[in-house]
TrEMBL record:
This is Transcriptional regulator. Gene3D superfamilies: 3.40.50.2300, 6.10.250.690, Winged helix-like DNA-binding domain superfamily/Winged helix DNA-binding domain (1.10.10.10). GO terms for molecular function: phosphorelay response regulator activity; transcription cis-regulatory region binding. Keywords: DNA-binding, Phosphoprotein, Transcription, Transcription regulation, Two-component regulatory system.
Amino acid sequence: MRILLVEDNEQLGEGIKTLLEQSYAVDHVLNGEDAILAVKSHTYDLAILDLSLPDMDGLDILREIRGNRLSLPVLILTARGKLDDRIAGLDRGADDYMAKPFEFSELEARIRALLRRLSMEKTSQLKLGAVQFDLRNNRVTAADTVIELSARETMVLRALMMANGRVLSKPQLLDTITNLEADVSENAIEQYVSRLRKKLHQHGIAINAARGLGYHLSETS
C-alpha cells in the first residue's frame, strides 16, 4: 500500500512518515503543487492532506482530485478543527477528517479503516491460470500451494496481474515498488522479473518481454 502525505511542517511530516513506513510506502511532499504533481504521476491507495499549505489551500487540492474523478481516499489532517471546517472538508469530498493535535494510534486506526473500505470495494482476488493473488494479504498461491515471493516481487506481480495482459513499462513497474525518494534503477526490475519468471513458469505463467516497451503476463498453455 502506498500513501501520499501532504504536510508542510517538515518535522511533523517526517515523523508521521517514519512511523507509517513500518507498514506502508509513504511519499511526503511539502506543498500543493508537488501534491498535485504526485497524484497525477503516481498511483496511491490513500492521501493524508493538510489544509494550510504555503502555496494553496488543501481544499483546492481536494477539488483537483475530485475534479479529475479520482477515487483516491483522502484523509484531511489539519489544525482547522472547527465544526464548519470539518463539514466543508467532508462536503468537498474528503473521506475522513482529523484535527491536530492528534494521537498517532488514532491516525493509524483511521487509515486502516479507509484502506479496509477500499479493499472491500475492489476485487479481493486476482487470477491467471492456476495462480491466484489474494489482495487482502498479498498471498500468492497455485493449486493451494503458496508461492514464496519477496515484498518487491509481490508488488511487481500484483501490478502485472492487475494490468490484465496489458504491457507495463519498466518505469511503471518501478513506480509500484519505490517511493519518490528511493534510488532504485530500472535494472532492478529486470532482476525481479527474472526471479518471478522462474517461480511462475512451473505453474504455467509466463512473463513476456515486449521489446522496448515492457512486460506482460500470459498463460504458457
